[in-house]
Amino acid sequence: MRKLTFKNGIHPEESKVSTSALPLETILPKAGLEMVYPLVQNTGAPCKPIVQIGDEVCLGQKIADSEAFVSSPVHSSVSGIVKGMRKALTPTGVIADAIVIENDGKNIKWDTLKSYNDYTLLSKEEIIKKIREAGVVGLGGAGFPTHVKLSPPPDKKIDTVIINASECEPYLTSDHRALLDETERVLEGIRVVLRIFPDAKALIAIEDNKPDAIEKLTHATKNENSMEVKSLVTKYPQGSEKQLIYSCLKREVPSGGLPADIGALVVNVDTLIAIERAVLRDRPLIRKIVTLDGGAVKNPGNYRVRIGMSYRDFLEAVGGLKSEPAKMISGGPMMGVSMFSLDVPVIKVSSAFLCLTADEVKTYTERNCIRCGKCVSHCPMGLLPYTLNQNVVHGEMDEFLKNNGMDCVECGSCSYVCPSKRHIAQSIRSTRRHRLEQMRRGK
Ligand code: SF4
Ligand code: SF4
Q1: CA–CA distance, 261 with 389 (Å, rounded to integer)
Q2: Quick one: which of 377, 384, 429, 385 has its CA closest to 10?
Q3: Is 369's C-beta closer than 6 angstroms to any atom of ligand 2?
Q4: Which of 364, 366, 422, when mutated, tests ligand 2's pocket best, judged by the most ligand atoms within 8 Å of its CB?
Q5: Which CATH superfamily is domain 3-22+114-281 in?
Q6: Is this structure's pTM higher than 0.85?
Q7: pLDDT tens for residues 253-302?
Q8: Main-chain dihedrals φ then ψ at residue 88, nearest 5 degrees
Q9: How far is Cα 300 from Cα 357, in angstroms, rounded to an integer?
């Protein structure tokens, strides 16, 4: 099988061995635990509560929603009583309004949860509605609502659905395990998406450091005419949407454009499982597969964790820490967010929780740029990271935009290779996000 790749990129240490061979495990919150549901868990408009303090709620019941198209409802992942509404810090660093529910431990199910739907009897619109009502968002990144992604404008013809199974971030193995342990659900999720795009072909793109997943999926799809497994060179950031599309199709997403502009749609592995649950069984998104790893953790692994459970309760349920971590990260070490508290809930876009020891965390002092050009030669977007960094330092927003700073995919490769350890990616990321927020507000 020919291996596919993109331009530039880096090869960070993979650090996946401690979890990649361990099957998925399910963690259930204990009775009496407080579950916290932020009303902002994904890209799009915040939700508003549709329950009140003192209400009894069921497992899977919708508790918050929004009328905005780009939004996604929130569901309770336990049965219990609404104890309060308060501000909560999320693992993405955002402080959001949140609903607090005390788990009664009874798991009383909401009455719309079904055992099976024949999705082939549903129209495309009905399928998309079920995905929206289940609160499904992209589970591999910023959490863009999946029903929006699956509704491109009519003039955008999708010919390829790429299944993003590259999982290029160091430490992360949750998609790898999902491919191995929930193969049929992933395939059902793909069949549902292909029902929305009947003329498209699905490419299941897996990095070549997961030969067991490539073999299993190749075997499982041997009779599927519309699916093909593609082997990717293991290189970071292979899983970034634009790089993945280039690797698979040699097409470039135009600056400021979307994958649909070039006929492609990218869906993450765990998102496909959420689609399968939503469409076939009317199950909302109430759990997330999270990789727990790092030298300070007693029992690394991949866990199905109920959304709303705090990282503290999650950690305690799987054996806790064996030493004091020097750094905690929500997500991977390249694109994740440093955490300073364990009293933060698992949300829809939680992908990993790393508790790293001092040996695993290198600290450096930032020095002057020596114009070596390494950041340029490794940038997968072909940008000039040192120039963008200078634009940020000098507050030159117009120059930042002219130098295509908004095309940055925030991969962190430039900072990783910089011998002067300049905080290039961090500076570009914060400026880019500030600008995106301005654009969202129409400025
Ligand atoms: S400038 Fe952006 S896209 Fe380029 S290497 Fe740095 S973080 Fe990645
Ligand atoms: S890698 Fe670092 S030192 Fe080299 S040009 Fe880029 S910013 Fe300057």
Answers
A1: 30
A2: 377
A3: yes
A4: 422
A5: NADH-ubiquinone oxidoreductase 51kDa subunit (3.40.50.11540)
A6: yes
A7: 999 899 999 999 999 999 999 999 999 999 999 999 999 999 999 999 99
A8: -140, 140
A9: 14
